[in-house]
Specification:
Elements lengths: L4 H13 L3 E3 L5 E2 L5 E2 L1 E3 L8 H19 L4 E5 L2 H13 L3 E4 L12 E2 L7 E9 L3 H12 L3 E10 L3 H9 L4 E6 H10 L5 H12 L7
Parallel strand pairs: 5-6, 5-8, 8-9, 9-10
Antiparallel strand pairs: 1-4, 2-3, 6-7
Amino acid sequence: MILNEDKALKVAEFLLQIKAVKLNPQLPFTWASGLKSPIYCDNRVTLSYPNIRTFIRQTFAEAILEQYGKPDVIAGVATGGIAQGALVAQELGVPFIYVRSSAKEHGMGNQVEGYFERGQRVVVIEDLISTGGSSLKAVEALRDAELDVKGLLAIFTYGFHLATENFNNAKCPFLTLSNYDILLKKALDNNTISESDLNTLEEWRKDPNNWNK
């Protein structure tokens, strides 16, 4: 779900402009999972562009206030959500914590890093949602720490039905600043892709596991 289509289109434009998102239906990328994909997304690139970084930070903050009100704390998901989350926490003037992918094997054995108190209202920041698996592990860790997770926001989602199903099952609302459909619309409008590319990209999203086999 997105809150504002105009801003979603602007985010998509930025992601394409700086090649944080690359589209190449003819020469697919190979993800770490081994999956073949015509799209590759690295939202960390946005941090290198101050104007884009500022727009994303402010849009995150506006969406949080509109949807959840001011939280007690912002939590970033390691690793891509840490810098984004810290920027949002600064914008809102609230504390920041972050969630490791797993608990440390030394020291205090923390999975949630930073100061927080039980029962505090937290909004989670992520850079990208694919299936939602890693994001929801972070949500689970925050809940285990007795924090009240109000929802999760990410810059971008591929829009897989599995992700929506996983978030619904976890009873965790989520929003994204932009998404796959919006990105394809912007890419077609600015001639980044052709109509035939669009068909290929839409087919991939329907069945990414069997696409290009």
